[in-house]
Protein 1
Amino acid sequence: MDVKVNILRYNPETDRKGHWEEYILEADPDERILDLLHKVKWFDDGSLAFRRSCAHGVCGSDAMVVNGENMLACQVLVKEVSTPIKIEPIRGLPVVKDLVVNMDSFFDSYKKVMPYLVNDTEPGERERLQSPEDRDRFEDTTKCILCAACTTSCPVFWTADTYVGPAAIVNAHRFVFDSRDNASKQRLEILKDVDGAFRCRTAFNCTSACPRGIQVTKAIEDVKRQTLTIN
Amino acid sequence: MKVIKHSFDGVIVGAGGAGLRAAIEAAPHMKLAVITKLYPTRSHTGAAQGGMSAALANVEEDNWNWHAFDTVKGSDYLADQPAVDILCKEAIDSVVELEHWGLPFSRLENGKIAQRRFGGHTVKEGEAPAFRACYAADRTGHMILQTLYQKCVSMGVTFFDEFQVLDIKIDDGVCKGVIAYEIATGNIHIFEARAVTFATGGFGKIYKVSSNAHSLTGDGPGILYQKGIPLEDMEFYQFHPTGIYRLGILLSEAARGEGGILRNKDGERFMERYAPSIKDLAPRDMVSRAIATEISEGNGAGPNNDFVYLDLTHLGAETIKQKLPDITDFVRTYVKIEPINEPIPVQPTAHYAMGGIPTDVNARVLSDATGTVLPGVYSAGESACVSVHGANRLGTNSLLDIVVFGKRAGQSMVDYVSSTKPMALSENAAEDLTNKIENLMDKDHNLEFSVPRIREELQDTMEENAKIFRTEESLEKQTEILTDLRDRYQNVTISDKGKVFNTELLEAIELEYLLDMSDTTVASALHRKESRGAHSRVDHVERDDKNWLKHSFAFKNDASVKLEYKDVELGNYEPKERKY
């Protein structure tokens, strides 16, 4: 079948602003949106820029806006979206070229929340013990692949880019609720800050955008509630 | 082209499991940079699913010697046994260390790390399948990658994200640094560094149906091969038995570890005929051959009889949800079937390179078949060949390999840096690379010589002629095809002449590495006149220990490949017939 695809193009070396380009592509309904982008790049215009690597939804490279919604281009099939298919870069981060955005501020926010286990007690020669129940408390947020689909779907983030955003809070949650971690208080102090978790207005965009099915808004609510337990 | 110079003691190329583990070891002791063409968390370690083996004995009696026996037998006796001992012995502390750094392993009721069964892993040297693979649901690689990156963030390790290393500078046999291309700007960066580790992963993109990421193009092995460093055991390429039909997306062996069964078009559990004792949990080379045989004998399913089924329907919804959530989601997403109720169409998929850059057990790169060390250059992970996997890697041993030998690469960098002085590189060190790029930029674009056309033909023909079963005829045919593709590559052109995010330029350079990987794979396979592990010669079906208990070393010799050989290092286990 022929599929009409519109891509928001921008080349900083030649364009003053972005413009839409239309492509008519021969495609199989079972192909991924990423396959369409490859068809354009490999057989039509080699300058089309987008990130991709694993092509099956685990590396988090190819978050983009397809028909108005954030998703991974490798995780959605042609038959699942309406045509013409409109593809544009994720919002709220500066566009570098075509579908590629600058991720610096996204990773800076992630690093702000101490996204690593803190436990200075002597662990001994074997593993620390953790019950399956304690392990389950943070299972959902361990799935994050840092694709930025959640953060760049958040209306608060669009207007206030100092907000750490859903992805950073998800990664804080992953440690705050880990029974082995000793730095919850410091993390929660960071998230109590003006640019922290209370910026969230529970729009739930992040939860719908997450390609890993993480209950992002719920995780943010868990973190908000947990900040009330520290003094 | 703008050229920027940096000065470091050590550089690690690649930020997957091996690169990050090396960085954790080296960073406290030197000025270190980790350079990756992706972001670290996009590395393909994150796609590994089922587990990481270590004889923790959390579920049942186990010890590392049994793990070593299984690894050696699984390798079809081509692995170097002293290296295997290190792998299996250090496995235990490596898993514990990752747990201490926060890795969220799945747990047993008593709070210890959970362990599951996996192909080729047994207790008491073959008695029964062993519960040895430590796991975090079916996203163990993701958790390892995240944990190692988190540890690096906590240590303040310096990263150059989306910088692609394209050249190494070796003067008079001594390493002086690397040259990288900054993807966002097109600027060239000279990194002075006397210790350089390549941890660039595999090269599954030489085949059409592959579980590998688009980024796995053999960059590290390619860069060194072009400098005259040999590549070891390239004929041994692993095809994972259960890739999603046509797409090649990996469905972990954990699916069979948890009780999944392979069936042909008649619903027969055919592995009972091929491996009567451990059936579906036979090593990957045997299962992939069994599937290929079923298909060629007309027992494949579907209108073209070209796949078999992975049946999980008897496992129950709860086990699937708890233990195999991701892979069953892949099936729902890409095949649109519910694996709780329906069997999944699968076929073997190009998965893992047992071969690669030759190293010793301290990750030091060897420049010939006699064991000469190349000072200052290291490799670990899939890009390296130690060799712990021999002719066929057991499942879970790659995640182990990256942490055990990643750590050793880091330690070797520290030893080397502390006993040597900084190396200087001049501004013109980048000249070879800038000339190569300018040459590609200056040529007018011609579709006939475009990267995708040459690459597609490469992948299609490698799939046809150098996959699971090989013959002298198929390999000679592929040698001719590769010569033709190489000729066309000399004229390769690109359309994008810009500086910003010019990934077409990088795909053109990566294509040369893919051609190097293919040349060495086919030449090594053509010369090895026996069948061993993943290398199955239809015209030489027996393993031949008398003549072939040795590693291949493939050297670049102008346009062709020159081969030398090195004896396998044996140990406790004498080569025996390999039966399961």
Protein 2
Amino acid sequence: MRQVCVRIALAVTWALAAHGAGAAEAAGIVKIAEGKVSIERAGSSLPAVPGAAVQTADTIVTGENGRCGITFRDNSLLSLGPNSRLVVNDFRFDSTTHEGGFDSTLKQGKLAVISGKIAKHARDAMKVRTPSSILGVRGTEFVVEAAAAR
Amino acid sequence: MRTVRVATLLAAAILAGCAAVPQDRVVLLPGPDGKVGQIAVNPGSSETVLGGAYASATVDAKGKLAQAQLNSSQIAQQFGDALGALPPRPKSFTLYFELDSDQLTPASAEQAQAALAEIAARPIADVIVIGHTDRTGELTYNDALSLQRAEVVRDKLIAAGGDPARITATGRGEREPLVPTDDEVPEPKNRRAELSVR
């Protein structure tokens, strides 16, 4: 019982900390959302409408006819095609020095990327993961496809 | 009956085996100026660097990597949905001001209309306005003037229908001249506000 209580307390603390971090400044803003698109955050699913904020630890999910375009704070542009899942593992950006890191995972589906200031500032500071690989981004435009979950 | 069921199961298993092995894929694209960057693909053991337009790598579930050369129509066909949802690229504008004033020059007043049109055309546009001064006058005075210039531009954008919550104005004083000069040198190109429209 005591262990459970400790676990719950830890979870609450973690959730509050995550909330505080997110409230400071969003990693990105949803600019385009068509069809069914949602943001999974801390166990709940929020509609990803244009103007919605995207934060570290969010998962962007598109449905069968959904697609979604997001502009990140460092000017990285990402978009998802239908039936896709993208997890924002980490986003850090200093708008003065352009230092930072952008780490995301395409769990399934299709992703298009135009990298921004983070990738331009430091080689491999932007990474996109797929179920099989890690992609080190060196200031480029590219598309990624991840086979369905396995 | 039993053998039929086993045969069915076997057939299903064979079909599943013959279906394409699940693969991840990355394809490098040229930028609007034709330039192509690089992507390092690492399936776990070693790194392969892609470096040409429409160069592609596929990696199967076992981590085996294969390279291929695709073309633009294949990309349009296979990735058109995702590419079509990319937000517009950020665009920059620079507006210039009269000496020691928050009044735009006549040419920049016209240019401001182009910025307004760009903002109106974008989905959920957000704008960062950064004001600057030349090096005439005191540092603290110029800090205030640069912020005032940025705020005048911000007010114009809001008056034209811009969302106040998505337009920020900051001043950098005389710290970031576009044209480096000695102190106290008037330089029209440094009396400016830079707009980043996203």
Protein 3
Amino acid sequence: MTASGIGAPVRRKEDQRFVTGQGRYVDDFNRPGQAYAYFLRSPHAHAAIRSIDTSPAMIMPGVVAVFTGDDLAADKIGGLICGWMIHSKDGSPMKAGPHPALAQGKVRYVGDHVAVVIAETLAQAKDAAEAILVDYDVLPAVVDTAQATKAPVQVHDVSPDNTVFNWHLGNKEETQAAFARAKHVTKIDLINNRLVPNPIEPRAAVGEYDFGTDNYTLYTTSQNPHVARLVLSAFIGVAPEHKLRVIAPDVGGGFGSKIFIYAEETVCVWAAKKVRRPVKWTSDRSEAFLSDAHGRDHVTHAEMATDENGRILGLRVHTTANLGAYLSTFSSSVPTYLYAPLLSGQYDIPAIYCEVDGVYTNTAPVDAYRGAGRPEATFVVERLVEKAARELGKDPAEFRRANYITQFPHTTPVIMTYDTGDYAASLDKALEVADYRNFQQRKQESARNGKLRGIGFSSYIEACGIAPSQAVGSLGAGVGLWESAEVRVNPTGSVEVLTGSHSHGQGHETTFAQLVSDRLGISIDQVSIVHGDTDKVQFGMGTYGSRSGAVGMSAIAKAIDKVIAKGKKVAAHVLEASEGDIEFKDGRFGVAGTDRSLAFGEVALQAYIAHKFSGQDLEPGLKEGAFYDPTNFTFPAGVHICEVEIDPDTGVTKIERWTAVDDFGVIINPMIVEGQVHGGIAQGVGQALLEGTVYDQSGQLITASFNDYCMPRAIDLPSFQVGMTVTPCPSNPLGIKGCGEAGAIAAPPAVINAITDALGHEDIAMPATPQAVWRAAQKARTLLAAE
Amino acid sequence: MTTVSLTVNGQPVTADVDPRTLLVQFLRENLRLTGTHVGCDTSQCGACVVHLNGQAVKSCTILAVQAHASVVTTIEGIAGGGELHPMQAAFREHHGLQCGYCTPGMIMSAIDIVNRKGNALDEQTIRAELEGNLCRCTGYHNIVKAVAAGAQAMAQAPLQQAAE
């Protein structure tokens, strides 16, 4: 390991600009002559629009234009799309209702887009929006996930009972048989609470149109600018793909919510041509709460069958997944193929059957949020396993261990083939770090102080490195999920890497440079990582699903291999040796068995001046590109242990210890990986203890600001004990599994298992707020008294 | 329009502003000091923290006209002579940031904590004092470490502190 190569905790290159206030986020961009957009949003969860009168707004000071859905339709701008086709059990395609960027005839959730005002200043646009007269015929709304198919409300004409799909995975008959021979069945009902992603940078967009060249430019807060360009051009039809440049500069966190192609960005780039000026929109936080795609929102009943020895025989799960009022970009894949295939967890379960009903409600669209389907699956599996262990009187750690998969590759009943792992190794290390053997002592000590102490486990698995294009294509994906890279060696020997991955906090400018430094033997200061601009980077699928290391860096590694191969050809000419005798080692091209060699930079220069070879023999230049398509998903896994102490008088849950032992395969930069784990845990703890999205029965979002939606603060969290085990991933050239989502996947069941352990009963839902925990603690007292 | 005059990062500035202009808008839009960020509209997130007459304030919560005749320091104004402020250096060294969006506000709050609470800060003090700053990326673990280290480093760099 070199000081800046793979495995080194290199300090981040990008931090110089971030700590000095020189980062450039979308809202920091101002284009000459720009006007400001403000969206008039529906105050009703469900209403027919009888009429919209924009004329009073048009005469307000500073107003440039006011547009409605009719204007988009007149320009043949298509609706927003959902790019993953799910088929129901009966083979019928999912019922996708229309999703216009600006409402056409109907609004379906509070915050739905009714009209846009474009004005000289934002304040003028806001003032004018208030003057628009919309005549609504307010309709009853449905917001409750479990009631969606029973309510006398129809969100979309295509779906009379609000069902999007009735999907399933696994083997129903085998699972029934497994339950028939079970000695014990553990049952659980779970709600996976709806979350608002809330990256601290709100979404923003600047649309621009150049009449001279017919080129459109969109600056946008995107995790995947190329996907945005593809969707905006091929499906929505805003601009031809070759005329549309999408720039995603520094982006202030995404967590999934900036994957999607939303109405506001679409309207900004379209309107820029209409008003012949750049159009800028920046979300405020209230708008973000209303209109960013939310996460989770499942209602689940699950059962686990075990035999007389405590072996798991089978699992059956029924989930209702709330998809909101419209199908967002990848929403249909989240509660289906990103969920049910993870229901085997780390366990050897012979039979699994899962049914998922996707439903429409009059709420904000629900799509991928950190972990996307995998946290929901892990919550089901790890709550069930914990409860089963308790019911069977077994130690929760040892019950897990007894059911772990130990042979690889292992094919589960839910289509996944785990390539490698050592789950017992993570468990052993976690038990040691958590000082599990002395837990009972600590519990007694807490009891003496009138406190309830509990410990909770989470043995999670995730499927990352998304994904083999053929595989996802067969499952309904509308795109391939490869990644592309170009490694551009300059004549002076410095290197630019153009990557389709996008960094919005992950530190790619450092970790990707570490890979180049490691492979080419040059300093990371000689490497620039270029991303987030479709005019610079040829193609890309972007960053989500913990894919930038396993997929994005694999593409870079592939391109580096090509650069080295080409470099050998150049070196062979310069050194007057045969190509087969050229070795590349420690940053030098040398002739095997001699002391003749050239530094990497010398070969780069020779490749461009091309004096030592004829252009017929060898093309000048040293620049190579690669597409990398994964051969399998990757399977990061680990064990998190949460230890809590509850004050039964106040209901306050304090996390006393957090142990995380994760296997992410090969690690490029442990400092950055640990940071990803910390952040993921914080979001998972937020879900478990603090964050809950509340709509009232009329569909008003009650938790629409940081005053009402409880984000985790520093005081809510402990410091974390983070450890690693490593089984290199065999499915990609770097051995990387991915680390971005692990904490958010592992944490919620660990917290709830700890709380239920402390309480002595299972009746607590997320978020386990002090009020909820206080009530549960009173119930525990009642139960105790009754015994 | 109202005229405001103040000192920002050591430079005197005067501008005519709409009276409803917030200080953060004035900094970002009039002065193009875009290091100060806006992350919410309820004064919760702290991405907009700057120093007003030496004290941390959320610049989304006061009007530009209220800062008239004041001295304002933003994230762009704390590094001296090409050297990072010790708190900036500590955030970098301890990986106290990921996406960087909350970072300017975090650093300005952290310096204010040190000014009020001294250079020896324990974990609980730091966590409690960061009440007004939200981060969605780091889980605060490394921010807490960075603030503790930065606080200590500030004791070793009295000149920079005085310059601030």
